[in-house]
Amino acid sequence: MSSDTPTDLVASRRHQMFPVLSAAEIDRLGRFGRVRRYSAGEHLFTAGELGPGMFVVLEGVVAITQRNGLGQVLPIAQQGRGHFLAEVGQLSGRPALVDGQAEGDVEALLIEPAALRALLIAEADLGERITRALILRRVALIESGVSGVVLIARSDAPTLAGLQNFLRRNGQPYHHLDPNTDHDAQLWTEQYEIGPFEVLAVCPSGAVMRNPSDLELARCLGMVDTVEHTDLYDVAIVGAGPAGLATAVYAASEGLRVMVMDCRAHGGQAGASARIENYLGFPTGITGQALAGRAFVQAQKFGVEMLIPAKVVSLDCSRREADSELGLLLADGRRIRARSVVMATGARYRRLDVDNLVAFEGRGVWYWASPIEARICRDQQVALVGGGNSAGQAAVFLAAHAAKVIMLVRGEGLSATMSKYLIERIEATANIELKTHRAVTALHGDAEAGLQSITLQHRQTGELENHDIRHLFLFVGADPETECMTSCHAALDPAGFVLTGDQVRSASCKALRPGASLESSIPGVFAVGDVRSGSVKRVGGAIGEGAAVVPLLHAFLAGLS
């Protein structure tokens, strides 16, 4: 994301955020929409309510303002003839994040979400300008810190950082108010009798929630629907990391109907990477969130349907013989039907075997390093456990904010587990200290103050040492997310990763169709990315597998016809 302030961003990129279409260009868009008329004072769209699509102003002026659940309003722009009104959420008909009100009589061309996606593909040059504007508008809304849900909580509330990260990684704007420093926030906490470590969330619709879960907050913001999805999809993809999003983009661009589900956010673990510097085509590097965000928009452009957050709890393959479909059961009881399934679930963060670890999660123990955590630990000494690339990226990122970063590894160094360029970066960073042969054996603190110190043990000498550490970052590997496949008895390797192709043949002597290199032991169920046994555990590899599985899906689906 840009380091500019929201005002600077709008000023410096106004020509890209709010381009004016010529009369000829408006004529080209006419076939994708229908003309609507609005009277003075009438809303074309309202924050928190489902957006009808993109508007192109033909006559009159529309005032665009951003507003949060507390009723705070900030003007954004006045849009006249030739301006188009939308941001990326309108690609899939999500709730509007801003208000659009007619200042006088207005005539506008309404292009609904499906037609908008068709426009972006059919009109390539116009589509590029429109897409860039839609993305920049969302970025500006996020950076403004005014629109979206309002989170009222003390800055050290245990669940606050988790909710902030959930919103940030899903590209949702939000505003945080601390009752210790904001009078209005103090009044809200008194009115709702909020405890010192609780979070009050106020959605743009005005709905108020106490300590919401990610799913509850998502539903309040309209990020995920509650309707039954009864259609039969060509491909259902479980997981929206690099592998899942790559599969979605390539499959949908080739005409397949695709549904993507993820229990938390798009981007997977890669989406939490502070900077990826060895991904082809980005010589200056790119943040994991930026890369994932682009892929997420690209998938929606091709018509991919998204359910995020939505947790898949089990795979139903019992009906394969009867009607050539698979079923995916969601945690909320809904069932998704698909002719094929791609498991791109990746892996979940591994925890240390230390007493009271869970008690300090969100109160000093973190599993990712984002700008939110960087702000919390600014000018403090922090510790980071792990020796892989993710750990290296996090250490370098945190070193720019923390007074000192202590890297803790169990082995004798980093060369066996980390890319050379990251090792050199760490060695060149003065405030990163590497401690080898160390393991965290104890955490100290309390519910009020959070983590205060940690105890380390030298794995060779047994010597114990205590460090005053209020923030401990854990990057100690991950375990495959395969629980939802156990109902179909999928073949797994000893570590729990999904066997595919020749691995299945070797393990079970089971005959598979020729060329089904990424197919699991369950017919029609494929595995790509980190969840697959033998994958290279790199972003580039995951994207490559996402592309490679699409022709295999075509072949499988052709066999069902």
What does this structure look like?
- There is one protein chain.
- By secondary structure, the protein is α/β, with parallel strands linked by helices.
- Strands 13, 14, 15, 16, 17, 18 and 29 form a 7-stranded mixed β-sheet that branches. Strands 20-27-21-22-23 form a 5-stranded parallel β-sheet.
- The protein is globular.
- Mean pLDDT is 91; it is low at 1-7.
Give short descriptive properties of this protein:
561 residues, alpha/beta, Jelly Rolls, Glutaredoxin, FAD/NAD(P)-binding domain, 4 domains, 5-stranded parallel sheet, 16 helices, 29% helix, disordered N terminus
Summary?
This protein is of the alpha/beta class. The protein is built from 16 helices and 29 strands.
Whole-number tally of structural domains: 4
**Class per helix and strand makeup:** alpha/beta
Overall pLDDT level: 91
Q: Termini distance?
A: 46 Å
What general form does the structure show? globular
The helicity comes to 25-40%
> What is the CATH topology descriptor of the largest domain?
FAD/NAD(P)-binding domain
The number of distinct β-strands equals 29
Based on the structure, what is the oligomeric state of the protein chains?
A: single chain
Largest sheet: 7 strands, mixed
Rg over C-alpha atoms, rounded to the nearest angstrom? 25 Å
Mind telling me the CATH class of the largest domain? Answer: Alpha Beta
- Tell me the number of helical segments per DSSP (H or I, 4 or more residues long): 16
Q: How is this fold's topology laid out?
A:
Blueprint: H1 6-17, H2 23-29, E1 34-38, E2 43-45, E3 54-59, E4 62-67, E5 73-79, E6 84-85, E7 98-102, E8 106-111, H3 113-122, H4 124-144, E9 149-152, H5 160-169, E10 174-177, H6 183-191, E11 200-202, E12 208-210, H7 214-220, E13 232-238, H8 242-253, E14 258-261, H9 288-301, E15 305-307, E16 312-316, H10 320-323, E17 326-330, E18 335-343, E19 347-349, H11 357-360, E20 365-366, H12 371-376, E21 381-385, H13 389-399, E22 404-408, H14 420-427, E23 432-435, E24 438-446, E25 450-458, E26 464-467, E27 472-474, E28 478-480, H15 502-508, E29 525-527, H16 539-560
Parallel strand pairs: 9-10, 13-14, 13-18, 14-15, 18-29, 20-27, 21-22, 21-27, 22-23
Antiparallel strand pairs: 1-8, 2-7, 3-6, 3-8, 4-5, 4-7, 9-11, 11-12, 16-17, 17-18, 19-28, 24-25, 25-26
Helix pairs in contact: 1-4, 3-4, 8-9, 8-16, 13-14
